[in-house]
Amino acid sequence: MASQLWFLGSLLVALGIAAHVLGWDTLLWIPAMLLETVERSPGTAGLIVAGGMLMLVARLIGRRRRD
Question: Is the pTM for the entire model greater than 0.90?
Answer without folding.
Answer: no
